[in-house]
């Protein structure tokens, strides 16, 4: 009982004067009304008791799922009862609580979004840890990569977006070419066929190709020799003339 955040105290004096005191620092109770009347103490007993009815409205969801009552009579005999599994949920009618948070020497104005979370004036999120507001860690975003002359590579930050765009283009083109291709799943189509291509061979291993390459190589060498023969003769003549020069 001493840990309760909201308490309704009701008392009736010997003179019949009823008093009610409400302790509600969180402002979770509204329209509190207490009514009393005499009635049977139980269905089996005709003994008269004072029936006390307490009615109120919750302005905010409960942090705990328990309510308790503590009743005592004129002889100080007390009865305590607890009611479990009482769930009150929904948005609070009270304005959100506000706090001041400090991070890296700067003061931020926080607005509570739940019992353990808040948001500051810049949109940053905070978490209540060990009765202290801590700014949530925000990882550095990967910088956006530019488009290179080779297009998007798999390591490019925009690759996933580019791949999805290509998927949409391909799907749209397929619908235009084959409107009925998406009528049934691929594994349900019975007239699927495939082409079998012959085993590829390296043309350089063909003896006929090798013979042609040899002939063309000899022919090219002959042409080069014919083109270079005048140059070779001129160089030889120039060398001989140079060697015959004598100095007196």
Poorly predicted runs are none
Number of strands: 11
**Count the helices. How many?**
2
Largest sheet, in brief, is: 5 strands, antiparallel
What gap, in angstroms, lies between the N and C termini? Answer: 134 Å
Q: What class, by secondary structure content?
A: alpha+beta
Q: Rg from C-alpha positions? A: 48 Å
Q: What does the average pLDDT come to?
A: 81
In spatial order, strands of the major sheet run: 7-8-9-10-11
Strand proportion, as a percent range, falls in 25-35%
Compressed to H and E, one letter per element, the order equals: EEEEEEEEEEEHH
- Helix % is 10-25%
| Overall spatial form | elongated
Tags for this entry?
single chain; 248 residues; alpha+beta; 5-stranded antiparallel sheet; two-stranded antiparallel ribbon; 11 strands; 23% helix
Explained architecture:
The protein has 248 residues and is α+β, with helices and mostly antiparallel strands. Among the domains are: 7-84, no CATH class; 98-135, no CATH class. Helix content is 23%, strand content 30%. It contains two helices and eleven strands, in the order E-E-E-E-E-E-E-E-E-E-E-H-H. The protein has a five-stranded antiparallel beta sheet, with no helix packed on it. A two-stranded antiparallel ribbon has the order 1-2. The protein has a two-stranded antiparallel sheet with strand order 3-4.
């Amino acid at each position: 009982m001493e840990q309760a955040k909201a308490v309704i105290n009701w008392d009736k004096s010997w003179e019949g004067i009823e008093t009610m005191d409400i302790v509600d620092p969180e402002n979770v109770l509204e329209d509190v009304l207490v009514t009393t009347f005499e009635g049977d103490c139980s269905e089996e007993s005709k003994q008269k008791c004072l029936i006390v009815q307490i009615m109120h409205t919750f302005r905010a969801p409960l942090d705990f799922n328990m309510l308790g009552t503590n009743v005592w009579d004129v002889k100080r005999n007390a009865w305590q009862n607890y009611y479990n599994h009482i769930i009150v949920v929904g948005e609070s009618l009270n304005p959100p609580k506000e706090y001041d948070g400090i991070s890296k020497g700067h003061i931020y104005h926080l607005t509570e979004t739940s019992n353990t979370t808040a948001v500051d004036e810049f949109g940053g999120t905070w978490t209540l840890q060990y009765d202290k507001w801590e700014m949530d860690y925000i990882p550095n975003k990967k910088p956006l990569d530019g488009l290179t002359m080779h297009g998007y590579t798999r390591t490019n930050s925009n690759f996933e977006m580019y791949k999805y765009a290509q998927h949409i283009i391909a799907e749209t083109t397929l619908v235009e070419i084959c409107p009925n291709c998406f009528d049934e799943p691929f594994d349900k189509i019975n007239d699927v066929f495939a082409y079998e291509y012959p085993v590829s061979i390296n043309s350089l291993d063909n003896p006929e190709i090798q013979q042609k390459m040899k002939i063309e190589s000899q022919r090219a060498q002959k042409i080069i020799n014919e083109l270079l023969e005048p140059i070779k003769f001129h160089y030889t003549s120039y060398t001989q003339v140079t060697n015959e020069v004598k100095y007196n």
